[in-house]
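dumping these here so i dont lose them again. two proteins, back to back, each one seq then structure tokens. dont judge the mess
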Amino acid sequence: MRARSMAGPEPQTQTQSDAAAHLGELSRRLGNSYAMLRSIIRRSAESATSVESFAWHLEGRLDVIGRIMLAAMRGPDVSFDLCRLIETELSDQHAGGGGDTWSLNGPPVTMNSAGAEVLGLLFYELVTNSIEHGILGAEDVGELQVTWRVEQGADGELLHLDWIERGAPATSAREGFGSMVLEGMLRYQLDAEATREFGPEGVRISLSVPMRSLVQDDAGPALA
């Protein structure tokens, strides 16, 4: 009679184990990104003023998430640079006259894909709104200054970012997709706070984001 083997399955090699862990992490990230895509499509439809507006803005928002999803697929340790996120939106939308119209100043800040998706969407909305209604769409008028810093808070480090447009009057825009990102996604997914100030000299949008929300394991599904 042949003896029954009591041995268990062969142990995985380190390479196999790493690959399995990477696939599991990638699956989780893609699931979260898919949930965000569904939210973007639904809320874009709710805030659109026309079919053309819906199609135009939806394409731009999906491009933001698509770029980040593709980058995240390279490996579990991929991170995203804050300055690069802002530069990408300004350059892709041909905002103003480049360095003559806008300036970016702050220390290096990196984040995970969940943080990059939310902040990338926010910067897309801010650039788009400025081109349509603010100084980035005006000729030889005003400037955009984006500055950020990291400070120690009571519960850990905080990223403080100021988006300041000067040189053209600003009024409060209607509540649309950008407002949902500012008041919903930022708070729900990143535990962040945001304020908006409009006046005769321009607009100022200030963010305060816990750094732990940007560097910890990717957050849960997007706000539905």
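---- next one ----
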Amino acid sequence: MIHIVIAGPRGNMGKEAVKMVMGEETFTLTAVVDRKHDGARLKDVAPDLDADVPVYTNMEECFQKEVCDVLIDLTSPETGKQHMVTAFNYNVRPVVGTTGFTDEDIEELTKTASEKELGAIIAPNFAIGAILLMKFSKQAAKYMTDVEIIEQHHDKKLDAPSGTAIKTAQMIAEVREEKTQGHVDETETLQGARGADFEGMRIHSVRLPGRVAHQEVLFGGQGQTLTLRHDSLDRTSFMPGVKLAVDEVMHLKTLVYGLDQLID
């Protein structure tokens, strides 16, 4: 039995995570950490969840009072980083679904996890289909090196480009030499029209109400194009990946960035 604490239980992702954990026979939800409602029961502040577990506003107090093996954190990069550090101090293994971590953040957290021999996972995207899209993109980039990425998310998302788009570009860069795409004399008549530049790849971010999480990777070649696309139509699409991460993190002794590291 894996004892789990969820941070951010009232958000869209958090609610689905609560339902997923409560529906798994090998998982037990012991508590949640929220920015308010300290001392309440989750079922009283989120009646649709029907989860009779305590709510804490302080992560350290939660770990002191509750049994916890894994922390599922679905908050923000700044809060998520603080929660990870606290989790390491209490020998709790964090699974974090927040994007926006810097390379320096990941390096620092990896060092701590390795020193403590504690598993940890930061996943820019928990959707299995999105992970496969990244892997297929890396494979395609060996043969078609002109690449552009278009990612679409809801208009409440704070970071752009998305962590998924950046991770995709990083994976492609492992098999593709940096190159300038487009015409050598290309000029933007409106600044930013060509999107962000990652080693010559262009990344375009769309933010609209009604979107959830969508990404296209477009490849161009002589006389042909290839388009790979993934769509998360609702947030239940992320839950199989969250479950996989919780199961796998129990066997890790360092930090893993991206579920692609766990899927063949």
